[in-house]
Each structure stands twice: as C-alpha cells, then as structure tokens.
Amino acid sequence: MFQECFQHAARSIWAYAYDMETIHLRVRTKRDDVEEVTVIAGDKYDWDRFNEERPLVKIAADRFYDYWEAAVKPKFSRFAYLFRLRQGDETVYLTEDGVCDNPPPPVAGYYDFPYIHEIDLFAAPEWAKSAVFYQIMPDRFANGDASLNPEGVQDWGETPAADSCFGGDLKGILDHLDHISELGATAIYLTPIFQAPSSHKYDTIDYKKIDEHFGDKEMLKQLVNACHSRGIRVVLDAVFNHTSERFPPFQDVLRNGEQSKYADWFHVRTFPAEVKDGIATYDTFGFYGQMPKLNTANPEAKQYLLDVAEYWIRETDIDGWRLDVAGEVDHHFWRAFRQTVKAAKPDAYIIGEVWNDARPWLLGDQFDSVMNYPFAGRALGFFAGEGADGRTFAEEINGLLMRYAQPTNEVVFNLLSSHDTPRVLTQAGGDKRKLKLMVVFLLTYIGTPCIFYGDEVGLQGENDPGCRCCMEWDEERQDRELFDFYKLLIGLRTSSPALLSGRFRFLHAEAGDARIVYERLGDAEHFTVWMNPTGEETVLEHAMETNDWHDALTGEHAPAEDGVQRVELEPYGYRILRREL
Q1: CA atoms within 13 A on the CB side of 53
Q2: In this structure, what DSSP letter does residue 577 have?
Q3: Least confident of 8-17, 366-375, 430-439
Q4: Could you tell me which residue ranges the Glycosyl hydrolase family 13 catalytic domain spans (predicted)?
C-alpha cells in the first residue's frame, strides 16, 4: 500500500460531529490501492468494556485518491480510535503517531475525539436543506411602481448597458409572487436593495435605507410578510467589503483627510485619498476608485456594520444574508457577524460569496454556506462542453464533495448562473437539451439549489451586462415548456427527502464514456439518475439487485432483468428512477 497517500486528521473535515450522537470519520488512500478500511474505536477511560470495530465505506474517488467514511455513535460522546487498512495479505494501522504494522496498546498514540459539544456543531438552518432559491435583481425583475423610476430609465426589455436602469422595484416583486410560487421556489435571494447610485446597488451609500427607486422599509416589510405567508424565505445581499465613495464616512475622509474621525474606517495608504492615474491611494474593490474598501477591523466600523445586520432582521424579519466579496473580509469580523445574526434570528441563513475552496469560512463559526461556483464550473464544463468524460466529471464532483463535511454539503449554495456569469442557456449554446441535463443535475444533487430569475423561461445573455437582462413577462415570448420542466423538477425535489439530504454517489462514470449514473439514497427512498450527454441514442446498463424501480416523473415501471437495469436514453436524454425502501 502507498502509505504516503494515507490521510486523516482529528477534529477536521476528516473527523467531525454530524449531530449530537454521530461522528463521521473519513480516511483517504491512493486510488484502487486499499481493499478494506476499518475503524477500531473505544472509550479512552474504559477501552476493554467499550470498544467496537466498524467498516468504512468507499464513498468517493477523485483522480488520485479513494475516500472512505464511517458513522460512529460513541456511547459517552467521546472516543479514541485508530484505523486498520488491508490490501490482500498486507495489513497496517493508521494512528495519530503514524503508520505501524501492529496496533499499539490502547490508547497511546490513538486519535482522540474528546467530546461532542452541541455548541461546536455545524448548525445551518434546517429549512435551508429543503429550500430552492430564486435569485432576483430588483431593477431587472418587474416595474411595479413607475413613480419610483429614476431619471433616464430605459424601456423594459431593451439591451442593457453597464449603467442601465429599467425601473424594477420591490412592488414589482410583490406583484409577481404568483410566478415564484407556481415555479415552486421556497426562498428568494435579492441582490442589494439599499441606497446606492448604481442600478446593481453593490456600491452602498446608506445601509439603513432602502433605495428610493426600489421602495422603502414598509414596502420591504410588506414583501417579506407576503413571502412568509406563502412559505417563501427572503435573504438580502449585504456589501460589507466596500462602500460607495458617496458613503458619508468616506466623504468625511475626502474632506478632512487624516484628521477625519473615519480615517481608519478605510485602508488609506497615503493621504489625501484620491485616484491618480487610475490607481487609488486607498484600497478598493478591484480597481474601482468609487468603491473604497472598509476596514472591518476598526471597532467603530465593525460595530456599525454589525448593527446593520441586526437592524434589518429586527425591523423586517428577513431570513438571512448573502455576503458580497466575503472572502476579502477578515475572519474576526465574520465570527462576530455570525454571533450577531444568530442572536437576532437563530435560523437565519448566512451565505458568503467565496469563489474558491471555502473551508476556512465553513467551520461552524462564520458562514452556513457559500455560493458554489466550483460546482457550476464543473457542471457547465461537462454538460455544455465537448468531449465529456464521465470518469473525469465524477472525479471533479467527488473532489468538491470531499472539500467539505456532510452538513456543509447539505446546504452549500449551488447554482448554474448568476448576475456575475453568462446565463446557463447561453453557456449551453442555446441547446435546451443540454440545459435540461444541467438542471436535472442541479435539482437531484446534494445542496441548496438556486435558479437565476428568467432562466426558467429561457432568458439568455453573456457576461454582465448581458446576463442582467430584463425579466420577460409576456407569456407569448416565454418558453413555457421550459418553465413547466423547471416546475416539475423542483416539485420532485421538494417532495423527496432523499433528494434533500440523502447520500450522493456515482454508480457509472467511466473513462472515454460521457454517460453517467448516480444515486441519492435516503432512509425511505432511493433514486438513480441516468444521463446521456451525447448526441447519440444509447442503452445504459448497470447492475441492480431489485426490480421495484419506477420512473419518478411518470410512475412507469422500470424493470431490471437478470440483475441488470437497462435504460434507453435519447440524445441528451435523462431518466430519474425511484423506489421505496
């Protein structure tokens, strides 16, 4: 065995409390190198009376490694443990002190899980596990009150430019809640709605005022209440990394320089704060001089922003925050932010914008979730690209799953497109068949899915500003067949517990073969999803012990013969099978 590939670490994504009774243990080995992994666990204070052996199951594989997992339920909320790994007639033991040929006497050198503390559990809100989000840019969704229109508003539906305003507002969202309810979405994520000079509002002037072109606090309350009456949660977008240059404290810095009482609210490298040759003398978002970066380590600035987070929960009963450019804000601030938000509303959902591996923010003390752009990249690359390879795709997805603990995977914010990316149908080259495969994957995968407004009726658009086009409300110009497809898949997801929190695993994903089969396995139901992302008809086979499968969308029986399930698939076709346990 390649012992140098072994990986385990106590109290990490390799060993964590899933709930108050269960600890998940993971071990990594070289791919196809180890036949069997077993955990030997016992109470460190009385090993002889309280110990057990439990096999680990191979749950995933990426290009180089296999990943094994077991769920252990210690009798006294604590235990010591080591692993036995076997390949053929070779057996070794993995301990905290390293690899050895014979197990050391208990419990010297063993790994240790000292105690399951409830306060230390990763505790994302339960409702997020079953939510289907619908992302809205208010200016582009619907114009409900023309009296709020800014000067120079463009005609609805015109091609957007970077500085376009179309007059969408909170009343427009309120007026079209029937559309969101019919679709089946159970949560809304609104891009920023606070006072700002732009249409996108990611350059805040006043964090405690709804932008006058969107409405006011009373209208937000009305919208939140209407959503709650329909079982729809509402999450707002906050920009705590930077502000507008018109933010009053920054204006004070511009006027008074180093003497300003707000000078340390920002990262000013040299005074005066100004832009020279396109480069600001202060830190900014990107190189945008009109977006100065906040110093969230400054106690006064920090408290100001924490008050904002609490204020909107207390005043309007929102259900959480999506946090813009979250990866560029210090961890101390986010820890305080979580404490503030959870004190105001314990089941508030906190989503950070982190585009890469987000493990440092997902340890239970900061965010509940992050926008899972790596998921989007893998899904788009596989389903919308050319030369798809099932094994490579499975390795990439498994690699993402192994980044995080299971509780994180159950609520990570999965998406295919957003206000910062080309629309998913555009990325699919306008091919609805490819789009549907991606949507099926999104809605049968583990995590919290999000639909970008208009994707469900066939909107297209390249990168910003193209992707930020106006919602199409003329049903004659909507793709209603696509809407019905989204509605059907969302309905299946929200009515199927196994699709919300069941185990995800690839069953068929071979090199040189684009076709894939994967499963979602829960306590009472079992799904298999069969996909053919090629332009040819095919018959896909997989060994299957039972013959009680039915099409999850039509109810038609899907027989298995002689222990093999054979599924016919059209070009770019899919089938979702289900059975009760």
Answers
A1: 7
A2: E
A3: 8-17
A4: 135-493
pLDDT at residue 385 in the model = 85
CA distance 496 to 150: 45
pLDDT over 90 at 386, yes or no: no
Q: How confident is the model at residue 483 (pLDDT cuts 50, 70, 90)?
A: very high
- What residues have CB less than 8 Å from 279, skipping those under 6 apart? 287
pLDDT of residue 12: 85
**Residue 387 clears pLDDT 90, i.e. is over it:** no
Is 450 a member of any domain? no
Q: Which amino acid is at 335?
A: R
How many residues are given for the chain? 581
| Strands 98-100 and 90-95, bridge-based pairing | antiparallel
Phi, psi for 335 (deg, rounded to 5): -65, -40
Q: What angle do CA 138, 455, 536 make, to 5 degrees?
A: 170
Domain of residue 68, residue span: 3-120
The catalytic position among 211, 237, 245, 324 is: 324
Q: How confident is the model at residue 280 (pLDDT cuts 50, 70, 90)?
A: very high
User: Among this protein's residues, is 324 annotated catalytic?
Assistant: yes
Residue 150: inside a domain, yes or no? Answer: no
Q: Is residue 236 part of a domain?
A: no
CATH of the domain at 254: 3.90.400.10
Helix (H) or strand (E) holding 23: strand 23-30
Strand partners, 24: 16, 71
Question: Looking at residue 39, which CATH number applies to its domain?
Answer: 2.60.40.10
Choice among 62, 66, 139, 353 that is catalytic: 353
Q: What is the DSSP string of 184-224?
A: T--EEEEPP-EE-SSSS--S-SEEEEE-TTT--HHHHHHHH
- What's the number of domains the chain is made of? 3
What number is the average pLDDT over the span 272-291?
Answer: 96
